[in-house]
Amino acid sequence: MKNKNTINNNLIVTLPNGCASNKTVHLSSSPVKKEREKTSQDLNISNSQQTGSQTNDEHSLQNSQKKKKRKGSKKKHDGASNWMNLCKTLSIVPSIKATVQKRPVEESTESPDPKKMKSDVWFDNVDNILLDTEKTDIDKTTKKDKLDPLVKPDSFKGLTNCVAMDCEMVGVGPSGNESILARVSIVNHFGVCLYDKFVLPREEVTDYRTFVSGVTAENLATGEEFVKVQKEVSDIIHGRILVGHAIHNDLRALFLTHPQRMIRDTSLYKPFRELFSGRLPSLKKLTAKVLGVSVQEGQHSSIQDAQATMRLYTMHRQKWEKEFKQKIRLKKKKRKNKNLK
């Protein structure tokens, strides 16, 4: 039999006895092919090693980045847990950068005024002894001096159920002994002046009594008509308790009357008269003794006199009204007893 060469790299080896065996031996066709296979295997091994090292490096980088993120989140975003959870769900890396914008400093071209700077300066944590407090002390003393002991501060300034009235007179007639109305002043329950007007004289004034009354010819020249003043005063005192010192003289000068039960006369109040051995006290002495306030020093003021009488009344109002009610009850009982007889 003839030797045959197989195409698929299979060779039939001839034996020495001349017999051919059907056993096939797989051999490479050439040594070049073997070398190529070896080089390809080596390249595959090296590529696999490189890819493995790359994956390991990527894993290590990712782990280090996660650790850094965790550390940064603990330091910076401990309080923003909701924000961090939202970032995780959206796979967003939170980044907070505070940008502070500085305002441009405006350089003033105007020269500072020393007077303005002095008022605008404020001192913190400085001893009061080192500060200039002379001005404030003066202001406090002037305020105390301005306070009137006969007027309640920050009180109601309108009409009250109780009013006090005082009038000033001038002299008419040949000798100036007769008196006519020159000025009327009315204050409310708290001593606040409600009404103060000069009255035009209806007769020729022969004695202005300026050293006592404080009224001058100029005051009366700018006064108002008697009828108008009379009407205005009557409207004010109507239905109200009227307080005054010897108030009957003032009502007589106004040609007015007032119910006796609505009059409180400080000159007739028994406890006040007892302080002067039952005699009728003057308003000047009464206020000095009871209130410790001096009035009618030099020229009189009808406003101040009305305020003094009101203060005397309000100091003893409860006791005064209680005694007054008892007197009214006794009078009613006497009347009933007379009617029964």
TrEMBL record:
<feature type="region of interest" description="Disordered">
    <location>
        <begin position="20"/>
        <end position="80"/>
    </location>
</feature>
<feature type="region of interest" description="Disordered">
    <location>
        <begin position="99"/>
        <end position="118"/>
    </location>
</feature>
<keyword id="KW-0378">Hydrolase</keyword>
<dbReference type="GO" id="GO:0005634">
    <property type="term" value="C:nucleus"/>
</dbReference>
<dbReference type="InterPro" id="IPR012337">
    <property type="entry name" value="RNaseH-like_sf"/>
</dbReference>
<feature type="domain" description="Exonuclease">
    <location>
        <begin position="161"/>
        <end position="322"/>
    </location>
</feature>
<keyword id="KW-0269">Exonuclease</keyword>
<dbReference type="InterPro" id="IPR047021">
    <property type="entry name" value="REXO1/3/4-like"/>
</dbReference>
<dbReference type="GO" id="GO:0008408">
    <property type="term" value="F:3'-5' exonuclease activity"/>
</dbReference>
<dbReference type="Pfam" id="PF00929">
    <property type="entry name" value="RNase_T"/>
</dbReference>
<dbReference type="InterPro" id="IPR013520">
    <property type="entry name" value="Ribonucl_H"/>
</dbReference>
<feature type="compositionally biased region" description="Basic residues">
    <location>
        <begin position="65"/>
        <end position="77"/>
    </location>
</feature>
<dbReference type="InterPro" id="IPR037431">
    <property type="entry name" value="REX4_DEDDh_dom"/>
</dbReference>
<protein>
    <recommendedName>
        <fullName>RNA exonuclease 4</fullName>
    </recommendedName>
</protein>
<dbReference type="GO" id="GO:0003676">
    <property type="term" value="F:nucleic acid binding"/>
</dbReference>
<keyword id="KW-0540">Nuclease</keyword>
<feature type="compositionally biased region" description="Polar residues">
    <location>
        <begin position="20"/>
        <end position="31"/>
    </location>
</feature>
<dbReference type="GO" id="GO:0006364">
    <property type="term" value="P:rRNA processing"/>
</dbReference>
<comment type="similarity">
    <text>Belongs to the REXO4 family.</text>
</comment>
<feature type="compositionally biased region" description="Polar residues">
    <location>
        <begin position="41"/>
        <end position="55"/>
    </location>
</feature>
<keyword id="KW-0539">Nucleus</keyword>
<dbReference type="InterPro" id="IPR036397">
    <property type="entry name" value="RNaseH_sf"/>
</dbReference>
